[in-house]
Amino acid sequence: MRVAAGEGAGQGRLVFGPPGAGEIGVTTRARDTLLAEMEARLRDGDGFAVATLNLDHVVKLRRDPAFRAAYVAQSHVVADGNPIVWLCRLAGRQVELVPGSDLIAPVMALAARLSVPVGLIGSTEAVLERAAARLEEAEPGLRVVARIAPPMGFDPAGPAAAAVLEQVAGTGARLVLLALGAPKQERLAALGRVRQPGLGFVSIGAGLDFIAGTQRRAPVWVRMLALEWLWRMLGDPARLAGRYAACAAVLPRLALTALAERRQP
Fold first, then answer.
1. Which domain does 95 fall in, by range?
2. The domain spanning residue 64 has which CATH number?
3. Residue 236 within a domain
4. SS3 (DSSP) at 81
5. I need a surface site. Which of 2, 78, 113, 177 has the fewest CB within 10 A?
6. DSSP string spanning 110-146?
């Protein structure tokens, strides 16, 4: 982790990827900035890909070359997770917490206002149908024109991925929410930037499950205390305990590196 070359510690972009991986870090400091840039691209017919960086992603970036390449291909990266926000601030860079799940409502409002058709990719058909109905109900004028649930074992870089991207583009969707989980959603977004460069992709993890009600998100007070990770782990310890242990293991070294960057002239 380092500040991008040629930029001061107070203004540079903190890089979380390993050496040689390209400059992987938070590129967009605030939600309003992201929404403004997304609106400009949608108006101009340009595509984009938004990733939401968290500590689990940082761990995966060190283990998975394909994930690193996908992250480098994203046009926008925001801080999804308090540890990323804190590390950036330790290095002297102020960024805003922008969880992927919290992006859904303002992004759908933007799509409705601009009359941009929306596609949903991920989860299950039942979840997508329920989430689409609730999104359209919450935002009058919103049109969800694609609901695609890839099968288990879906390869985000293979022929099936190319077919999914062609399918969603064929529906007329211009803004696509990806709910496949990391690293699949970021890899599909990276492929989408090549195969369907006019589409906008936003990776949102379990966001559609929260909207559909098939998963329960941590209460607001838990999130305000930065304990959403604990809430999730207690709900599924077998799957998440190891993941969060790996995140905890890398955090002290990342913090020391961030502090060192802050002290540089």
1. 2-220
2. 3.40.50.10700
3. no
4. coil
5. 113
6. HHHHHT--EEEEES-HHHHHHHHHHHHHHSTT--EEE
CB 50 within 8 A of CB 71: no
**Going by C-beta distance under 8 Å and a sequence separation of 6 or more, which residues neighbour residue 123?**
131, 149, 179, 208, 209, 212, 214
Cα 104 from Cα 134, distance rounded (Å): 12
CB 196 within 8 A of CB 204: no
Q: What is the mean pLDDT of residues 114-140?
A: 97
The secondary structure of residue 13, as a DSSP letter, is P
Q: How far is CA 207 from CA 96, 120, 177, in A?
A: 19, 11, 9
pTM, to two decimals: 0.90
Question: Is residue 7 included in any domain, yes or no?
Answer: yes
Integer Cα distance of 66 and 119 in angstroms: 25
Produce one character per residue of 179-188: b if its CB has 16 or more CB atoms within 10 Å, e if not: bbebbbbbbb
Express each pLDDT in 29-79 by its tens digit. 999 999 999 999 999 999 999 999 999 999 999 899 999 999 999 999 999
Residue in the block written with tokens 């995140």: 247
Calculate helix-pair angle for 159-170, 184-195, nearest 10 degrees.
60
3-state secondary structure of 243: helix
Assigned domain for 260 exists = no
Residue 53: inside a domain: yes
Position 6 confidence tier, pLDDT thresholds 50, 70, 90? very low
